[in-house]
Amino acid sequence: MRTFQRMRAASARVLSITVLTVMASAGHAQVSTTPPAGIRDRTPRVVAITHARLVIKPGVVVDDGTLLVRDGLVAAAGARVSVPAGAQVVDAGGRTVYPGFIDAQSRYAQPAEASEAAAAAPARRAAAVTPAPTGARHWNRLVHPETDLAEQLKPDAKSAGELRRLGFTSVLSTPQSGIFRGQGALVSTADAERLNEVLLAPRAAQQLAFEQGAWPSDEYPGSLMGAIALIRQTLLDARWQQEHAAWAARHAGAERGEANLALAALAPVVGNQQPVIFATSDELDYARALAIAREFKLRLALAGNGHEYRRVAELKAAGVPVIVPLATNEAPAVEDPDRALDVSLAELEHWEWAPYNARVLAEAGVPFALTAAGLKKLEEQFWPALRKAIAAGLDETAALAALTVQPAALLGVSDRLGTLEPGRQAQFLIADADLFRSDTARIHETWVDGKRYVIGNAATPDPRGHWTLSWSGLNGPAALDISGELASLNAKAGNATFPVTLGEQQMLLYPPGELVGGKDRVAIVATLEADRFSGRVALPGGAEARVVGTRERAATRTAAAAAPKPALPGTLRYPAGEYGRAEPPASPRALVVRHATVWTQGAQGRLDDADMLVVDGRVRAVGRDLKAPTGALEIDGRGKHVTPGLIDAHSHIAIARGVNEGSHAVTSEVRIGDVLDPTDISIYRQLAGGTTAAQLLHGSANPIGGQSQIIKLRWGADADGLRLAGATPTIKFALGENVKQANWGESFTTRYPQTRMGVPELITDSFLAAQDYAERAKAKGGEPQRRDLRLEALAEILAGQRLVQIHSYRQDEILAFARVAERFHIVPTFQHVLEGYKVADVLAKLGAGASTFSDWWAYKMEVVDAIPYNGALMARQGVVVSFNSDSDELGRRLNVEAAKAVKYGGLSETEALDFVTRNPARQLHLDQRIGSLEAGHDADFVIWNAHPLSTLAYPEQTWIDGRKYFDRADDAREQARIEAERARLIAKMLPERVKALAKADKGTKDKPTPAEQAAAELFEHGWHSRLASWRTPYHNSEPVDVCTDEEIH
Amino acid sequence: MKRSILALALAALAASATAATPAAPVLLHGADLHTVSHGVIAGGELLIADGRIAALGAKVDAPADAQRIDVSGKRIYPGLIAANSVLGLTEVSAVRATNDMAEAGAVTPEVRAEVAVNPDTELWPVARANGVTGALILPRAGRDGVIAGRAALMQPDGWTAEQMTVKSAAGLVVAWPSDRVPEWLPQAARDRAKEAQQKKRDALAKAFADARAYAVAKAAGTVRVPDLRWEAMLPALERREPVLLLADSAVEIRDALAFAEREKLRPVIVGGGDAWRLAATLKAQDVPVILGSSHNLPKRRWEAYDSVFAAAGKLAAAGVRIAIANDGDGMAASFERNLPYQAASYAAFGLGEEGALRAITLAPAEILGVADRLGSLDVGKQATLFVASGDVLDARNAVERVWIDGREVDLTTKHTRLYDKYQSKYRGEPKP
After folding, report:
1. Mean pLDDT: which of A37-46, B16-25, B267-276 is highest?
2. Which residues contact residue A276 at a Cβ distance below 8 angstroms, ignoring those fewer than 6 apart?
3. How many other β-carbons are positioned within 10 Å of the β-carbon of residue A73?
4. Are the C-beta atoms of B81 and B290 separated by less than 8 Å?
5. 3-state DSSP call for residue A561?
6. A792 pLDDT higher than 90
7. In 10 A of CB A1041, how many CB atoms?
8. Of A34, A92, A95, A223, which is most buried by a Cβ count within 10 Å?
């Protein structure tokens, strides 16, 4: 056999693998440019698979059809396909032929080092300088879109075999590290010596992810928002590079643009030609990737994370395909009731919902592909996971589509892969009909581009059925019925039942002696073909008998009827789990609060026994005996106090994966608005404390931080639903100890600025650059200008379109910045400003706001002179003063903070309450909408059980836009629901958990990556704020966004 | 200016008092007396003599030389006790040179909090100005620490730490090892925490075993040179001194209680965020709780938004003896003045005002074994008390005058001094 000769030339390793492979009539599918070694392969390459139940594509099935393969392609498929002379015929024996599966998120054929390096992102590199890469690459280590896996992959027979055994015939091998990770290669899973033989499409898609380092480090980006900013700037640069090159080509003598392989590699991405696959790590990443895709008109597919069911409406609306992992989470540790306390309801619910993920998407009509990525033991887990999804109600046709036509479509190869229509590559599998349902159904063969791979002893025919026997040498029974599962078959002849086992194209039967006229049980060893077996009976004493069995052609086996769809586990809420909402709070057209003490914080002052009328989400009037429209909701306010919703002018709630982009000294391009986390339970808790709006600020790790986001605390909304639309944008600046890295340890001593002398110079320099940038941008025509997101944000400040919020403590730094502000004609709000009382006259003259703490002091050097009289003293000098929280905890009792302005400095109660209502609104230029209860203002208000400045007061109801977002009575009901749900789910998962504990194998623990090691170390040292980039949605509000370490405030 | 003259006068008064010249008796009259031990005496009188409360009631007999102070319309309270504090052990917590909170090593029972309390800290006068006249100072456990040292009850009056000390050896501090790690951190963090916890547990077990061996040897007279560590643990082993078990989560508390039971100790749970979940056990074993600040977030997102606020009320309802304190970390030292307000948050959500007041006065005095001297307005107790403009639990009210052991103390602080100084700036005066 010629094939054999070829194999002898190959290594022993390849030999041992290839013995499993039956090199049937189809040889190499391609014309090779490699000089042949030895004798050429001229095996005929026409194959007909006959008597097959053909699934030509999802939903199109031909019973008893023929599939004709020529030169590795499908030539014909259907019921009436004539088999040409000379074709090799493979009788499928009624088994089912499915199109081969495609996995669009695979690590196949990647050199091991590559994926390990991926994990080794530096976690706590202090002031280390990233070495410049070789080649004309992007300045940032994580941006390498030019990476081309077609240059790196090496076919791996072991993995290829594993994939084929599962049914995968093609995979997109995707790069695993970086932000712009590079371009994946679509390869088949055929065995090959060289990638050339199996590479179906190089550069099939660009892979992106929101990867980030961990702050503190000089490595940019150190936050999710930094990663997003870097992606946007890079895409802008790629576009600009194209435009500039085109312009330069038209203008002789034009200056040459910078050469950059990374940007050049992005040309097909910004040109909407190459698909972009965005890896997501949680449900909030979808919106982030979608926003980028919209902005740059990308051909996007999302690589999902298993939480797609929670955002199905958003995905449906986006109309973008999603690659959904089959991997689901294990039951969390709930066996110890005291430890089970630490498992959230969201997590418990996810365990119950995860198997329904694909079904929910299918039913909503979201296009999706399935991936095996994330399954730790691929071969053990893939089919059980898929069947679990089907048992949970995923339609089998949709499941097949998600493994064939859907991934083919999203990779743009529908004309080549995914179905068995003529012209497609001959990639298919032959399997039992109930492959998608029964745990015992098997794949018998996988064909890749015409190459046949028989799986294990699957070539052995299925012997189940009625056999007619003819004996020679003894008188045995005339017929035999074989039934049961393939792994435990039984034969029945007359009254006797006896076991049958299968070997490789072999069957062994063990009839009792009586059946064959003897005494002792005998063994029959039979060669098994499709409808015939020929056996030898070894008789006691050395004699021998023979038996031949024949059977009628087995009918095409159709699968048993599918089980009815189970009901979904319940109603989805948002956020998932505890306190989530099934729908937004009702919006009554009109409502009136009667006979309450109303603190308008406006011209009307405080009114006792007053009414407040709200129509269409806005305050209509406050006064006595107001007439309400018919049908208005009436709220009895007797004994209650009504105040405007409290406004927190300095908050870090609802921010995902990093509050600081603390790497560079200037990071004005990053936006908190890109990383909102609507699942942060702090939103709900602060609503319960009467807070209705907050300014979410970047941290203070650098002199010019990032852009802030002002939100309303509309719990239950998504990220976009939180935004306070129409607000003037703001940005964080910072001075003092944090920006000069004073408390960061001895390894952070080189970034400029390290002193309070350098800070104003750096800021001045940045403003000058922004001025110049804005002027150049105004110049019409001429050379295409590079859009610079960093300078653009600063230019907005200079144009009066963005308000500076400057973190500050000491009077010297406040004064120095005040002079910078005067020079550039900007009016900032000073944050913290704990020594503001020393220069209150300067602040007043500048017209600056002061957003301070009520009584914080002494925790670090620059606050040793902080005094609780600060607020009152500044207010007396004419400064607009607010009290803020800067704390997830304090943000839910700002009313008591305000009360301290009465105690320290003797302000009136109304003046004090202004500190957390009207004044922060004034600082944010929002006082015409929020902060006071006046006609036309947003109906954001709180109904208190007692005087709002009392330490004993709490909100009974909190309203935003005329919708009730918090109600203490509703909350009590919700708590009861949460307790009941927890009990139910824990009881439900205990059996699975107990089973897992019993077989707990500790050997399989993954070795932690350097980044994970570093995180563990940081946690042990109590540097919690440095772990912000690890914190996922649905957290417990563990304090990573504010201090336990001192550098944040 | 007027204020600082008054301050000087008061300072002189305080100084002379400390010099042990018996002050004239003082009669405070016209205020509501919030005795804590026996209700409120409206518009009553309270006589201070020889550093003690000599009499109190609607009307009391005062000696002719008594200084009569009209405090009509005000309230008088016993001094507040902050029962979990590092006042004086830190000044600026971000500046390492000012911190003396945690000794190195796993087992340091020999260290005593009172010896490192800085009598001239700027922090304590600020707390004192809001009625905090007592604080239990606890050595903290460092990163590897488990037996941290011994606590002392201190009061903010005296030239030296010794004069400030009300009771030394007020409790052996054991920081119960925790392995709680946020769910979103990688497994490596959990593994590491588990290892560290095991190490600490081993150190704790070994320390108690060694200390018991030492006790046996000592009783037999075979100890030649004392071991400072085990000497320091003897009172706790013999139940003469409580063991302050810093434990917060349900797992930590249950394990700490089991340990205390095995070792037959006199435990007090300090922190006790989840203590309400074990209220029945705590009640059954009569273990008191010095509860941490109400101004903490619930540990878990599913827990009620007010679960921390409601904890004290639930413990009290179950019959558990509770005091209310802050969290005892470096940051909390600068917030000690807010003790009454965080007690108020407990009050509003089930504990009630009376219970909240008791939990920052008499209850800690009882738990620390000084209720014969402090914690309430009762005849014979030390005259450590203050006059407030209204309900001390309400942040709008001011503490106006404070007496410690019968001596009136100065209420000026760094804050009032800076306030005065910068008010003068805006009056156009030159910088002093």
Report:
1. B267-276
2. A205, A206, A207, A208, A269, A293, A298, A299, A300, A301
3. 18
4. no
5. coil
6. yes
7. 26
8. A223
Q: Which of A522, A560, A526 is nearest to A396 (CA)?
A: A560
Question: Which residue intervals of B175-323 are DSSP H helices?
Answer: 187-219, 228-237, 250-262, 279-284, 307-317
Name the residue among A743, A1008, A1036 with its Cβ closest to that of B187.
A1008
DSSP 3-state of A465: strand
Tell me the residues of chain A between 909 and 938 that have a Cβ less than 8 Å away from chain B.
Answer: 909
Four-point Cα dihedral A93, A94, A98, A99, nearest 10 = 50
Q: What angle do CA B395, B396, B398 make, to 5 degrees?
A: 90
Contact A818, A848 (CB under 8 A): yes
CA count, 13 A, side-chain hemisphere, A17: 15
Q: A291: burial class by Cβ within 10 Å (0-12, 13-18, 19+)?
A: middle
ipTM for the complex shown: 0.95
Give the model confidence (pLDDT) of A79-105 as tens digits: 999 999 999 999 888 889 999 999 999
The answer to whether the CB of A574 falls within 8 A of the CB of A716 is yes
The CATH homologous superfamily of the domain defined by B1-79+375-432 = Urease, subunit C, domain 1 (2.30.40.10)
CA atoms within 13 A on the CB side of A238: 27
Q: How far apart are CA B405 and CA B155, in angstroms?
A: 10
Query: Which of chain A's residues have a Cβ under 8 Å away from the Cβ of B89?
Result: none
Q: Is the dihedral of CA A706, A712, A716, A721 positive or negative?
A: negative
- Quickly count: other Cβ atoms within 10 Å of residue B40's Cβ: 14
Interface contact flag, B192 A953, Cβ < 8 Å: no
Touching B: A residues 948-977, CB under 8 Å: 949-954, 971, 975
Closest residue in chain B to residue A1008, using alpha carbons only: B188
For residue A36, say if its preceding peptide bond is cis, omega within 30 degrees of 0.
Answer: no
Give the pLDDT of residue A36: 84
DSSP helix/strand/coil, A165: helix
Q: Report the pLDDT value the prediction gives residue A558, as an integer from 0 to 100.
A: 62
**CA-based nearest distance A282→chain B, Å:** 12
- Tell how strand A590-599 and strand A606-615 pair up: antiparallel
Q: Which of B194, B277, B346, B396 to mutate to test the interface with A (most CBs of A within 10 A)?
A: B396
Hey, what CATH topology would domain B80-176+227-371 get?
Answer: TIM Barrel (3.20.20)
Domain ranges of chain B: 1-79+375-432, 80-176+227-371
pLDDT digits (tens, 9 = 90+) for A508-540: 999 888 888 778 888 899 998 878 999 998 887
Q: Do A971 and B305 touch (CB under 8 A)?
A: yes
Q: Are B149 and B400 in contact (CB under 8 A)?
A: no
Helix crossing, A758-778 with A789-798: angle to 10°? 90
SS3 A105: strand
B50-97 tens-digit pLDDT: 999 999 999 999 999 999 999 999 999 999 999 999 999 999 999 999
User: Which pLDDT belongs to residue B58?
Assistant: 97
At B93-132, the pLDDT tens digits run: 999 999 999 999 999 999 999 999 999 999 999 999 999 9
